[in-house]
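Encode chain A's predicted structure.
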Amino acid sequence: MIPIDPPPCQLTSNFTYTVTGNSVAFTNTSSGSPAFTSSSWTFTNGSTTFTSTQTNPVQTLSPGTWTCCLTVSNGSCSSQQKCQSVGVGGNNNLPLWGNPTPTNQSATFRGNAKINGVIADAQDWIAAFDESGNLAGSAQIVVNQGLAYINLTIYGDDSSTPNIDEGINAGEKFRLALFDASANTVLQYPTSASPQLFSGWVSNNGAPIPGYDNFNTVYNFISGTFDYIPLVAGWNLISTDVVPIDSSISAVLSSLQPGNVQYVSGFDNGALTYDPQFPFLSTLNHFKRGFGYWVKVNAADTLVVEGSPINSGYFKPMNVNWNLIAYLPQQSLAPSSYLANYINNNTLEFVSGYEGGFQTYDPDLLPFLNTLQTMHNSKGYWVRFNASNPFGEHIGEREEQTKVTNVFQFIGGNANLKVGDEIIIQNDKGEQYGLLKIILSDGTIGIAPVYGDDPLTPLKEGPLPGEILYFLHNGEVAEQSIIFKGDYAPVYPMLKFDSSTFNNVNSLRATPNPFDGNLEISYHLTAKTRYSIEVFDMVGRKIITVEKGEKAAGWYSTIWSNDRLLAGTYLLVFNELGVAKHYQKIIKQ
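Encoded structure for chain A:
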């Protein structure tokens, strides 16, 4: 037997870091086969030394330059160590990240720097890091005649020191970082959330890099705060405490896993929806400051939103009845504290939150009866205000015909109708709950909300969960119906209206529909025919024969008096020679 040597042991120690003030977050990026099983860190500035055995420690360090070393082991290979100089605090105009290691491989990056559209300061520094996080170049910004010049020498790796990575290797990309001395923070280009990797570095004895050789090229570093919002699979009621750099809904959701978002719903004087499958039909296009949102995802995820912080005391302008609001403070507070102004002015009626299920708060209940005890950052909340005692300028009356509530879902879909045609949404009692309109020539229906019943009022503003909704056009009921769920999600029925015109032979029409008194039934015969008109309930039982006989060709109508008929949905059937030819759904109120 020929012995087989084991594969060579490979282990590399490496790490990246992010400095925020005096706090440094380290990320262990070591690799190997087998993978490392233990790690240890040392941080020293020459007089003070700290250690850590965490994989990704966050260390608070005093201002100055620190030597930070990571040692990793996998039990098979010899331990490997990586050390980097890390600048903290940026005192005396020194670069925050320390100094690069000069080598005989170099090239120069040129441009001019801005921070949020404003020219950088002469105390700021620019740096280049390779893909492993190694400092490859550092230079102070030069300000002259209103421009902040970048003249950055970027060093390459020295091939004669294989155990040390001093800079860029052939074909390796790099990123730019800027130390903002006034804010004592490091910014990535263009944003820390999505740093750009630059390609094209070549060693040319310090000459400008082709493509990065123009001092007039602006590199605008955008600063922002990051809001991390954890999402569970299914529905989440969320808010963000930042104003997004790009508030478009597609940009706000871009940090989530591809294809993970099912629906997003909002509420601003009415319900709004975003469906990534049909973005052109969506009515929710932007995230707004101070609002809450429903987000449904397939799997647990984290939404990362970069933007400018919102003052924790800000409230969106409130409306009478329901509002979907953000919770902005970092600390958790009881509803009685966070909404104290509204409680003291007797305007707050009800609050509800959602974390795996609804929790509620009623200011008039004994405290121990409320299930919503604390409100939390990154969550959204439904808040209802009474109409009788508005709170100053914050609460405004809502002018509407449809009763807007916090229970809703959306309806879109398609119908065999033409552009501009309208479809009424109603129940089997004829109570109308909404209106749909055909918006495209292929019969596409514009998405519209249907508001359900508000359980806090004695009135019935809309359908109850589980109630059947029907669709009417010109008095005809579509063959399809849906069950109202009130779950904030859209549904897309394919509606078919078969008897909406009298141009077809042997047509049948009943008016009015819905009806609460006599029903006029009109029909057309093309030849002398025996016929009958019958009414069935929705399980197929015949209720009555309205009329039967034999007539010549022509148009006819009959009046059906139905005083004893119970309210509900029925099927009107026209028979010719004993065979059902036409039918229409009719609704008795």
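The chain has five domains: 10-89, 100-221, 241-399, 408-495, 508-588.
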